[in-house]
């Protein structure tokens, strides 16, 4: 038979996602994500703070968030979320989670005080390497969502 003709279709333009920046439907912007034996390591690309994002979810609020991490920066994580009927992130739907610069694991628990379904979360991280040993989003009803299914032992 004849050789297959090369496709001339141009790839869709838009935000390019580096395959090395996604794990379990989570996405990292302005940083790189590395899966190690016992953590997810996120390193900033350049001077910008990376963001860890999960979209396309349906979590009945209020949503409990529990994370165990190490941070190379003593700042905070800015958490933003979007409810079901919101087209964009709104200023009211955010808060700051203080974290310590530490070589020891720290466990933080916070709650998204939404009474609706949370459909999109974004964690703006410090402009320093952050390692997550676990990150779990637990809705008031239904299944929780985890960053690292393999590491969290129930």
Describe what you observe in this structure.
With 154 residues, the protein is an all-beta fold. It is 0% helix and 51% strand. It has strands spanning 22-23, 26-29, 31-35, 40-44, 51-60, 63-71, 76-83, 94-98, 102-112, 117-124, 130-138, 145-146. A six-stranded antiparallel β-sheet has the order 1-2-5-10-7-8, with no helix packed on it. The chain is globular, with a radius of gyration of 17 Å. The protein starts with 21 loop residues before the first strand and ends in an 8-residue tail after the last strand.
Task: Tell me briefly what this model is.
This protein has 154 residues and is mainly β.
Ordered list of secondary-structure elements with their pairings:
Blueprint: E1 22-23, E2 26-29, E3 31-35, E4 40-44, E5 51-60, E6 63-71, E7 76-83, E8 94-98, E9 102-112, E10 117-124, E11 130-138, E12 145-146
Structural class computed from helices and strand pairing = mainly beta
The N- and C-terminal alpha carbons lie at a distance of 55 Å
Question: Overall 3D geometry?
Answer: globular
Task: Output the helix-strand order.
Answer: EEEEEEEEEEEE
Average predicted confidence as pLDDT: 86
Question: How many individual helices?
Answer: 0
| Rg measurement, Å | 17 Å
Question: Biggest sheet, strands in spatial order?
Answer: 1-2-5-10-7-8
What ranges have pLDDT less than 50 throughout 5 or more consecutive residues? Answer: 9-17, 150-154
Main beta sheet strand tally, sense and closure: 6 strands, antiparallel
Tally of strands: 12
**Residue share in β-strands:** over 45%
How much helix, percentage-wise, in residues?
A: under 10%
């Amino acid at each position: 038979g004849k050789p297959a003709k090369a496709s001339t279709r141009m790839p869709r333009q838009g935000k390019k996602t580096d395959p090395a920046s996604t794990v379990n439907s989570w996405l990292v912007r302005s940083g790189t994500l590395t899966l190690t034996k016992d953590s997810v390591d996120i390193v900033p690309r350049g001077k910008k703070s990376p963001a860890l994002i999960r979209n396309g979810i349906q979590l009945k609020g209020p949503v409990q968030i529990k994370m165990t991490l190490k941070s190379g920066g003593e700042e905070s994580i800015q958490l933003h979320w979007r409810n079901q009927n919101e087209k964009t992130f709104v200023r009211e739907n955010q808060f700051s989670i203080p974290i310590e610069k530490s070589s020891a694991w720290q466990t933080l628990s916070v709650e998204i005080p939404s009474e609706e379904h949370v459909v999109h979360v974004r964690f703006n991280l410090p402009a320093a390497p952050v390692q997550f040993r676990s990150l779990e989003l637990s809705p008031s009803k239904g299944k929780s969502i985890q960053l690292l299914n393999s590491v969290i032992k129930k």
